[in-house]
Amino acid sequence: MLYIYTKTQNALVKKFTFDIVKDSLPENILWIDMFHPNAQEMAYITQKYHIEIPTQEEREEIELSARYWEDSKSITINTHFLMRAENNEQDLANQTLTFMTTQNILFTIRFNDFKIFEEMQTRILASPKNFEDGYDIIDKMFEIRVEKDADILEWIDKEARKLRIKLLKEASFSYDEMLKQISSLQELNMRVRNSLFDKRRTMTSLIKSDKIDKDIKQNLTIVLKDLNSLVEFNVSQINVLDNIQTILASQINIEQNKTIKLFTVATVAMMPATVIGTIYGMNFEFMPELHFRYGYPIAILAMVVSIIAPLVYFKKKGWL
User: Fold this and answer.
1) Is 268 within 8 Å of 319 (Cβ atoms)?
2) Which of 217, 194, 190 shows the shortest CA–CA distance to 81?
């Protein structure tokens, strides 16, 4: 499906759905948004604008040359934008989004319903004077996306603080659930990190391009500084989450040591009684104590005393 944004003579922006069979391309096109485009639509755009649309494999490649390339007429960008899963709002994944520019027109190729596109549509239609060509849209879209990434990092920081407080102050909690939450935050943090690195490479290349005017370069430079600060904050979050995981591992070791200590004390306390019971459980014919009238209660009493004595000793030592 193709959505086309055009600039009118009154400096307004209009959006409409374009049918390659029924409609003709209008003038003053600002942006062509290709949402789940089929082969016919991509072939139509390729023929009309003489641009080479990257294949799915090319869009997913990680080499720098595959993420950004520029020729005398066009710029092509394949970058990662975080997107929420439909069944879980906290589950974010990096999805590839393609930007292409030629003749000052922006082309976007996407196969996911990014919410940022709804926000961009609202901003363009509300403030059309701020968008003179496709590069203005790219500029604003990267600015918004960096703001969204900052919000995600702030959320991760808040959740990490909650986990740390819970770990240090609450007496009882599920270790499995705590470890699962930490791992989830670590995974999300790494996805944000990958997205930030990918956008930083793209924005650095855009600033060097001679196709972009001075004002856009200045704004991208400011956004890039904000992005670099987010990368530093992201690194600090990695250390914070690793620290929380280390504390959790230490507490698990402490609990395991307590359990082992308890079983060790119980084993040591039962050893004398076991020895007594083993000795008088032997079936030798000549055992003087077998004919002693009070041998049985004395043996039982000796076993009880041999159990209590180590427990009292361990209690005084603070091992219980």
Assistant:
1) no
2) 194
C-alpha torsion sign, points 150, 154, 156, 160 = positive
Q: What's the one-letter identity of residue 314?
A: F
What percentage of the chain exceeds 90 in pLDDT?
7
Question: Superfamily for 2-253?
Answer: CorA soluble domain-like (3.30.460.20)
Instruction: Tell me which of 2-6, 157-161, 291-295 is least confident.
Output: 291-295
Q: Which residues contact 18 (CB under 8 A, 6 or more apart)?
A: 2, 3, 4, 25, 32
Q: Do residues 252 and 172 lie in contact, with contact meaning Cβ atoms separated by under 8 Å?
A: no
- CA gap 320, 308 in Å, rounded: 13
Query: Do the beta carbons of residue 231 and residue 197 sit within 8 Å?
Result: yes
What is the SS3 assignment for 1? coil
Cα torsion 215, 217, 219, 222 to 10°: value is -140
164-223 residue pLDDT tens: 888 878 767 777 888 888 888 888 888 888 888 888 888 888 888 888 888 889 999 999
Q: What are the residues whose beta carbons fall under 8 Å from the beta carbon of 99, sequence distance 6 or more?
A: 75, 76, 77, 79, 106, 107, 108, 138
Is the pLDDT at 85 greater than 70? The verdict is no
- What is the amino acid identity at position 132? E
Which of 97, 98, 99 lies closest to 114 in space, CA to CA? 97
Query: What is the spatial distance between Cα 244 and Cα 246, in angstroms, rounded to a whole number?
Result: 5
Residue 133 has pLDDT above 80, yes or no: yes
Rounded Cα gap, residues 216 and 8, in angstroms: 22
Cβ proximity of 148 and 82 under 8 Å:
yes
Strands 105-110 and 92-102: antiparallel
Name which of 20-29, 85-94, 178-187, 239-248 the model is least confident about: 85-94
Q: Is the pLDDT of residue 45 over 80?
A: yes
List helix spans (H) across 209-282.
214-279
List the domain boundaries for the chain.
2-253, 259-316
